[in-house]
Amino acid sequence: MSKDRPSLLQVYISFYTIVESMWEHLKIGQFPFYDSLFPSSLKVALAYSGALVDGRISSGGIIQATFLESLVKRVDNIFAELPNLKANFVRYLGTGKWPDAQSDAVLLSWYLQWYSIPPPLVVASTVEKIKRRAPTGVSMLPLLRLLLPTTHLVGLMEIEKLQMMPMRS
């Protein structure tokens, strides 16, 4: 078991370095990562590491849990700070159209994968089901959680926020 720990530490350091490098490049307007599978690979690695921490694979430790939480939080913060992402997300869910710029499209793809947000038609259908049955002014979040169980809470909150925005014509 101790043989695996140094390699796991190396994986953690590698993930954190990749995430920080991505953020530094994005801040200066460079976009070195066009791999749309990056977030999925990171999520798989985090799920594996989470299984180690939870003891589903073998025993984990507090350092692993703390590291995983900090890495996830860092990715969440990066998404929150990207200037065009929210507008592109709103447009995508409303129209199904991807951003024209390749870098914006890849970032939106990463965002959708990271938070497991389903395609616009699925979101629209789900929201319509809820609106027909739920009273106006009541939070949609519990029903969104029930109907979109694989979508991360952050994604569900963003979907709910969009429903509260005034409609544009």
TrEMBL record:
Annotated GO CC locations: anaphase-promoting complex
A Pfam cross-reference name: APC1_C
Presence of the UniProt keyword Cell cycle in the record: yes
Biological process per Gene Ontology, one example term: protein K11-linked ubiquitination
One GO MF term attached to the UniProt entry: molecular adaptor activity
InterPro entries: Apc1, APC1_C
Keywords: Cell cycle, Cell division, Mitosis
Highest rank taxon of the organism: Eukaryota
Residue span, Anaphase-promoting complex subunit 1 C-terminal domain: 2-118
Keyword Cell cycle: yes
PANTHER family: ANAPHASE-PROMOTING COMPLEX SUBUNIT 1, MEIOTIC CHECKPOINT REGULATOR TSG24 FAMILY MEMBER
Protein name: Anaphase-promoting complex subunit 1 C-terminal domain-containing protein
